[in-house]
Design brief:
Helix content: over 70%
Structural class: mainly alpha
Oligomer: single chain
Order of helices and strands: HHHHH
Length: 168
């Protein structure tokens, strides 16, 4: 298919695909990199983020306590929300029939979540937790649905603009 395209058309197709695939791989490496941390390194990172959030909470709502375990679980959810959104966007730039293949990004992210927990089993002082896979998948589902909503809205706005330009 790409052989038949002009230079500008190739750029239109190749660059978004390369950017999306690269973003997915970078985020996946970030997630896996955090999983390779030993228990002390992971705890240090979580403590640092918890301290920052606690300071913010003290300003906004004095007396509120930020729980480090909750911070960890939220981090899992947020990382996988981003990964789910990026996986869905990657699917979209590869095909216009994204609804036919909507399960592909979800299965991909589920495989990443399971792999992430497997890596943690092999990291010193760390453990694997099925709840984390469920949190990760919930984040991925959220990210996928948010990205899908974004794609549909952009498509709807684009069609509306095309239609209004046709009458102009």
């Amino acid at each position: 298919m790409l052989k038949d395209l002009t230079g500008k058309e190739k750029i239109k197709y190749v660059i978004p695909r390369a950017v999306c695939v690269t973003a997915v791989l970078v985020l996946m490496c970030f997630i896996f990199g955090n999983s390779t941390d030993n228990a002390e390194e992971s705890s240090d990172k979580s403590s640092f983020v918890t301290e920052i959030l606690q300071k913010a909470a003290d300003v906004v709502s004095p007396g509120t306590t930020v729980n480090e375990n909750s911070v960890r679980k939220c981090a899992h959810f947020i990382e996988f929300t981003a990964l789910g959104a990026l996986a869905m966007l990657t699917l979209r730039v590869f095909t216009e029939k994204y609804m036919t293949h909507i399960t592909a990004p979800l299965f991909y992210v589920l495989a990443v979540a399971v792999s992430d927990e497997f890596i943690q089993i092999n990291s010193s002082g760390r453990a694997s937790d099925v709840r984390d896979v469920l949190i990760d998948f919930s984040g991925a589902l959220t990210g996928t649905l948010l990205c899908l909503l974004f794609i549909v809205l952009v498509g709807y706005i684009g069609k509306k603009r095309k239609k209004s330009n046709a009458y102009a």
